[in-house]
Amino acid sequence: MPSHPVSYDLAEAPLAPGEVAIIGAGPGDPGLLTLRALSLIEQADCLVYDRLVSREVLALASPRARRLYVGKASRCHALPQEETNALLVRLSREGRRVVRLKGGDPYIFGRGGEEAEVLVDHGVSFRVVPGITSAQGCAAYGGFPLTHRDHAQSVTFVTGHCKGDGDLALNWASLAAPHQTTVFYMGLANAERIRSELQRHGLPAAHPVALVERGTTPEQRRVITCLGELVETIEREALTPPTLIVVGEVVRLAETLAQPAPEEAAFIEDVVLERVAL
Ligand SMILES: C[S@@+](CC[C@H](N)C(=O)[O-])C[C@H]1O[C@@H](n2cnc3c(N)ncnc32)[C@H](O)[C@@H]1O
To answer: Which one of 26, 38, 188, 220 has the lowest number of neighbouring Cβ atoms within 10 Å?
Structure first.
């Protein structure tokens, strides 16, 4: 059990010296941080952050706060996980107010659980603040829902990359069942396996797929394709991580629900403000 009790007040206990807050930084847009995350980031002496944490989020901390990068790219570890764990324990023992910032949600493919276990083992006081996971951010900003009463009664978040590049042993038959949405995190390198297994288990080549690269950031790219053309599309568009692969009928709704591009959004805001002024 975390030693910090869950608080339902916005004015919760301040971050204590020696305490670690494991915080979800969301998928990129700083506007998607929770109020609690913002409050704790502002109190931090030290930020220990991953590759997917945006610069805008890091900029919210005090200029005096130390910013320690421990990010990982697939197969290219900036700092081994054990060293990140040891760093958190050491900073806590030095009496720092530590914020461990992770992209998206720390408990969804974020190793937040592994780090929390280490903190428990070492008697370090910690709390966890959830973040908006990239599937949610990419769906909202990409213009499609993850569930819909007419198209998908469930949504599954799946890793497309196993520990130590191990075999992607997923329950393909269940992922290929109709009326559901499947979101593959870290799936680009295994796209051919994902395509062939889902088709082998019954999904048609025309089944809709959305690829969202750097979702919710100014560099977001959203490409709509179909299962049979998944690999060709990734190659043609030269998509790189971080990208999500979203498989399901809900993707068809992107044509009608897509959000306006940022320039258009700014224009709409101007118009609304002018109306308010009248
Ligand atoms: C190690 S997982 C971290 C997931 C994170 N904890 C979350 O909840 O979103 C990294 C993968 O998440 C996905 N991802 C994270 N941020 C993303 C973004 N802004 N746009 C698209 N995909 C993203 C990509 O599939 C990336 O390879």
So the answer is: 38
pLDDT digits (tens, 9 = 90+) for 180-228: 999 999 999 999 999 999 999 999 999 999 999 999 999 999 999 999 9
Contacts of 229 (CB under 8 A, 6+ apart): 205
Q: Which residues pair with 224 in a beta bridge?
A: 210
For residue 242, the CA-to-ligand 1 centroid distance in Å is: 6
Whole-number Å distance between alpha carbons of 92 and 244: 34
Q: Is 65 in the same domain as 173?
A: no
Give residue 241 CA to ligand 1 midpoint distance, Å. 8
Q: How is residue 182 written in tokens?
A: 């499947």
pLDDT digits (tens, 9 = 90+) for 130-176: 999 999 999 999 999 999 999 999 999 999 987 766 788 899 999 99
Catalytic residue positions? 50, 72
Domain count, the chain: 2
- Clarify whether residues 149 and 251 are in a common domain: yes
Question: Which structural domain range is residue 176 located in?
Answer: 135-257
Q: How far apart are the first and last CA of the chain?
A: 55
Same domain, 116 and 139: no
Which ligand 1 atom sits nearest the alpha carbon of residue 187?
25
Residue 242 near ligand 1, beta carbon < 6 Å:
yes
Report whether pLDDT(278) > 60. no
Q: What is the largest CA-CA distance in the chain?
A: 62
Query: Looking at ligand 1, which atom is closest to the CA of residue 220?
Result: 20
> Does residue 143's CB lie within 6 angstroms of at least one atom of ligand 1?
no
Residue 109 CB–ligand 1 contact under 6 Å? yes
Nearest-angstrom CA–CA distance, 277 and 248: 43
